[in-house]
């Protein structure tokens, strides 16, 4: 089975712009979660989608949004980028929503200048 | 929402020694998972332990869970250079990670 893929791998954007990141889960996995990782804050949960519905949400401002499509692929959008949004954004897929291991993608490294 | 807190924040040991790291949490959980992250392989799931389990083994890894103390420990025996990584615990389906323990194996 192919692993979790994320595109793009690297991205440089300017303050005020918006960005869309994409995640393709492992085939058959229905849950997709997004995380932000920074040296200062560590790994922080953004949101989880299951069967096209947002199931859980972390403590991030409304500028961060996501969605999941019927094929379980997910996208994450950040609007009005700020310098502090520079981070590694990780996507993880899981067969179900709880009690199952998550498989992480390589991440998208976003730099906001 | 609660967060697992790993302890210590950083640990350096000689190759071949055992490494122990801990995770504490505040409210009841259904399961706890340990993950490893290094630059080469990204974040990788190591082991899942459910709340009704006390100990679980996987190769050189041993995980214990004490629900009365709300803590878990991860023991890596006979450490190798490849074990150099950050280790995280994750709680339940809330998937709240701590900041991790950075483990460095010295040659």
Q: How would you characterize this protein structure?
A:
The complex is a heterodimer of chains A (113) and B (107). With 113 residues, chain A is mainly beta. Chain A contains no helices and 11 strands. In chain A, the strands form 2 sheets. In chain A, strands 2, 4, 5, 6, 9, 10 and 11 form a 7-stranded mixed sheet that branches. A 4-stranded antiparallel sheet of chain A has the order 1-3-8-7, with no helix packed on it. The model of chain A has no long low-confidence stretch (mean pLDDT 93). With 107 residues, chain B is mainly beta. Chain B starts with a strand and ends with a strand. The A-B interface holds A 33, 35, 41-45, 48, 56, 58-59, 90, 92, 97-107 and B 1, 30-31, 33, 35, 42-45, 48, 50, 88, 90, 92-100.
Query: Any idea what the shape of chain B is?
Result: globular
For the residues shown, what is the average pLDDT of chain B?
89
Question: Helix- and strand-based class of chain A?
Answer: mainly beta
The fraction of residues in strands of chain B falls at over 45%
Terminal Cα span of chain A: 37 Å
* Number of extended strands of chain B: 11
| Structural class by secondary-structure content of chain B | mainly beta
Total E-strand runs of chain A: 11
| Largest protein-protein interface | A-B, 24 and 22 residues
In N-to-C order, the SSE pattern of chain A is: EEEEEEEEEEE
Q: Please count the helical segments of chain A.
A: 0
Helix proportion range of chain A:
under 10%
Unreliable sequence segments of chain B: none
Q: What is the helix content of chain B? A: under 10%
What is the mean predicted local confidence, pLDDT of chain A? Answer: 93
Fill in the keyword field for this structure.
heterodimer, A: mainly beta, about 55% strand, B: about 110 residues, mainly beta, six-stranded mixed sheet, five-stranded antiparallel sheet, 11 strands, about 60% strand
Q: What can be said about this structure in brief?
A:
The complex is a heterodimer of chains A (113) and B (107). Chain A is mainly β.
């Amino acid at each position: 089975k192919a692993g979790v893929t994320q595109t793009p791998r690297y991205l440089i954007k300017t303050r005020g712009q918006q960005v869309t990141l994409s995640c393709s889960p492992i085939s058959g996995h229905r849950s997709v979660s997004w995380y932000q990782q920074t040296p200062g804050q560590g790994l922080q949960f953004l949101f989880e989608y299951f069967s096209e519905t947002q199931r859980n949400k972390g403590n991030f401002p409304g500028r961060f949004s996501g969605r999941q499509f019927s094929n379980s692929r997910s996208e994450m959008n950040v609007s009005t980028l700020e310098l502090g949004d520079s981070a590694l954004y990780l996507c993880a897929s899981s067969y179900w929503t709880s009690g199952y291991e998550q498989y992480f993608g390589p991440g998208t490294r976003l730099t906001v200048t | 929402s609660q967060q697992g807190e790993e302890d210590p924040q950083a640990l350096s040991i000689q190759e071949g020694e055992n490494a122990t790291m801990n995770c504490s949490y505040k409210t009841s959980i259904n399961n706890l998972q340990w993950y490893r992250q290094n630059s080469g392989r990204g974040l990788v799931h190591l082991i899942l332990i459910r709340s009704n389990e006390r100990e679980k083994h996987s190769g050189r890894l041993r995980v214990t869970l004490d629900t009365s103390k709300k803590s878990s420990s991860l023991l890596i025996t006979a450490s190798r250079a490849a074990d150099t990584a950050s280790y995280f615990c994750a709680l339940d389906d809330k998937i709240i990670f701590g900041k991790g323990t950075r483990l460095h194996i010295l040659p």
